[in-house]
């Protein structure tokens, strides 16, 4: 493991998503693009078949009047969902991916805000379609995903009859291809407009950054930018993608499909890691696992790697082939990165934001810094606005992958930019090697009366790392006092409530005086979370 800089991986440069599909079909042909379960049977679709299905479905869309229109899609991860996306954007239409976890009323708001004229939905969300038909007149065409293959048959016939409008369509690289909403209510929802070129450029840059050897599993929701982009990188690399339709099936899918690489949010990585140790503890093998870890780390320093032999039973929980987890969407404690790496699983933490298509930086497979979100991708530049004495300031991004603006929201668009630089609202710093480090969100920053800045996210990670029975933590200020609100693991640590105050005192001794926790609040339940599994930080303070 060299952990030093090296040239980018050779990757085909495509300028739009239609070029991407054409390249994948030509380069990889009959190689499987997607594998998934349908009606309790395993189905594989080749790269060439994927292109054919897109052309047929896109032709059918065109011939029912979908031209320069917006098409919304809602449903669990599926081949049909992916087909809908590409058949929409590669014909000059705009895709509007909807968060399936939103209430029907919020979905209606987004449909009406976006101006979508068609809704493609899975049968799991037929009730949403019925609600929209009753409550909103915005949608002209409702298409159940179960009917897509009938449309594909129709589209193939139309192509045979010479109707080649979709097939021959020339993509405008800099036109809006996707409209992604960053939240779920009309009061503060912002529609992020992403171009074909921005999405394609982000996929190419991420593929240049990382080597994907073996198969991949699509786990993250495809309606989120990171989930979709992870799938695009997999396509561009020619790696087979297994589609996980439900998180309830994730463990069984690991065992059935045995993936080599997975993109996940930190919550899942933390959960998997903690379950490994909980299982070892229950079986009375915790000390043995620690000993094997120590032996493995010693051997690794000598250049001897026996991790896949020593930790075969650990790796089996992921299917046995797992080599790499790519994490994004929230901070990840380095202890999980280091811990899983000692078992033979490389965890590469990255950073992105929807407005940047979305990936801005990610650690490379052989060039990484624990605690960092990696070097910046070659598709964009990063600068730190108004850095403090430690180099921390607002992260600003410029480049091909930055959004075209917020849909129908000129004032919000203007506020988000400093010239050509998009202001992310995240606080971070760059080191001398160009690695990016995230300190927190600007809106969460605590400025004490003595002028000191406290980044809540840094303290939260430190609390989780140093006090193991804290499962969740949110740090905020109240009356100029730093407060830690925590949810404890009382199931495995029955006396933790009585220990917490003393452990916080010990914790404070490891921190600068101005960062000391002045008050601790113990929660009885988990913190409410967003659909991306991030804690709703201001939930209690807003009294919701």
Characterization of the model:
The termini are far apart. The protein has three domains: 17-28 and 49-213, Rossmann fold (3-Layer(aba) Sandwich); 261-442, Rossmann fold, CATH 3.40.50; 445-523, ANL, C-terminal domain (GMP Synthetase, Chain A, domain 3, 2-Layer Sandwich), CATH 3.30.300. Helix content is 35%, strand content 23%. Residues 540-544 have low confidence and may be disordered. The protein has an eight-stranded mixed sheet with strand order 2-1-10-9-11-12-13-14, with helices on both faces. Strands 15, 16, 18, 19 and 20 form a five-stranded antiparallel sheet that branches. It has a four-stranded parallel sheet with strand order 4-3-5-6, with helices on one face. It is built from 17 helices and 25 strands. By secondary structure, the chain is an alpha/beta fold.
How are the elements arranged and paired?
Layout: H1 17-28, E1 32-38, E2 41-46, H2 47-62, E3 70-74, H3 79-89, E4 94-97, H4 104-114, E5 118-121, H5 126-135, E6 141-144, H6 148-160, E7 176-181, E8 191-195, H7 196-209, E9 216-218, H8 225-237, E10 241-243, H9 250-257, E11 261-264, H10 266-282, H11 286-301, H12 307-310, H13 312-316, E12 324-327, H14 334-342, E13 346-352, E14 359-362, E15 380-385, E16 393-399, E17 405-406, H15 410-416, E18 417-418, E19 421-430, E20 436-441, E21 446-447, E22 453-454, H16 456-466, E23 470-478, E24 481-488, H17 496-508, E25 519-523
Parallel strand pairs: 1-10, 3-4, 3-5, 5-6, 9-10, 9-11, 11-12, 12-13, 24-25
Antiparallel strand pairs: 1-2, 7-8, 8-17, 13-14, 15-16, 16-19, 18-19, 19-20, 21-22, 23-24
